[in-house]
């Protein structure tokens, strides 16, 4: 039987592995996040780093007339993304698992917002949300796939599929596909998919297509890592399929941030995360920066099929760049959501 202390050490090491580019973060901690620029001009991408906040990366932008949808907008990074995009003038469609939660989030921000109910574990709810957006008959300038769950302590399934894979990947896969029409109708629709550097801890073979149920040895963080790998593969395959259009699709790692998403981690791991927070963990304001950057900054209007960290292009794992795996994931995802796709 494994030594409990050794197991805890390995788990803490895995947690620390989620902290991206520690040397870069250490450098960024000493950098000036507010590089000099004119008050009414967008921030230069070269001046953005790990300490930049969502307000900083969108400063000088006027998003009036644009409509953007944020999933998981009731707390954490999603709420900060909702707040800042609305602050810059965008009409933000904010989703929560219930309409009441989404409404409460909208009530707390300044700007033009619309609450929507969206439970990514319920494909019927995903379809209903998409239909509500499509019924507006207006373009959708950005869709930020932000919502997610992490490290469910015990195996949970939705329709026979491991729940993290369903919520983090399949729910967003279905939502994006149901909203392609308004995204393509926009002058330049942007799909922004929140992945994680945790994708590097996915199984050695990548997506375990023969065990999407999770029944062959469920491990919480490995299942989470697989779902985050799926996020990136989806974003890249989508960018390939949208090549002939003006729409773009990019994935990102927001950084390590202590939000409600860590609620399923064991208490000692949450305590460990808080212990290293002073040096390596971003604030929520900093964590939302990259997705706001990808959704709104004019400098990347033509950038697609890329992976970003700290508002800068980064190189994901070789698995995330596996075109054959991405194509297979798309086909499997279509089968698993069949009956709900438009």
Protein topology:
Blueprint: H1 4-17, H2 22-30, H3 54-58, E1 67-70, H4 76-87, E2 91-96, H5 99-107, E3 113-117, H6 123-134, E4 142-145, E5 157-158, E6 161-162, H7 163-178, H8 180-185, E7 190-194, H9 220-241, E8 248-253, H10 267-280, H11 284-287, H12 289-296, E9 307-309, E10 312-314, H13 323-336
Parallel strand pairs: 1-2, 1-4, 2-3, 4-7, 7-8, 8-9
Antiparallel strand pairs: 5-6, 9-10
Give an overview of the whole structure:
With 342 residues, the protein is α/β, with parallel strands linked by helices. It has a single domain, classed as Rossmann fold (3-Layer(aba) Sandwich). Helices cover 42% and strands 12% of the residues. The protein has helices at residues 4-17, 22-30, 54-58, 76-87, 99-107, 123-134, 163-178, 180-185, 220-241, 267-280, 284-287, 289-296, 323-336; strands at 67-70, 91-96, 113-117, 142-145, 157-158, 161-162, 190-194, 248-253, 307-309, 312-314. The strands form two sheets. It has an eight-stranded mixed beta sheet, sandwiched between helices. α5 (99-107) links the parallel β2 (91-96) and β3 (113-117). The longest helix is centred in the C-terminal third of the chain and has 22 residues, at 220-241.
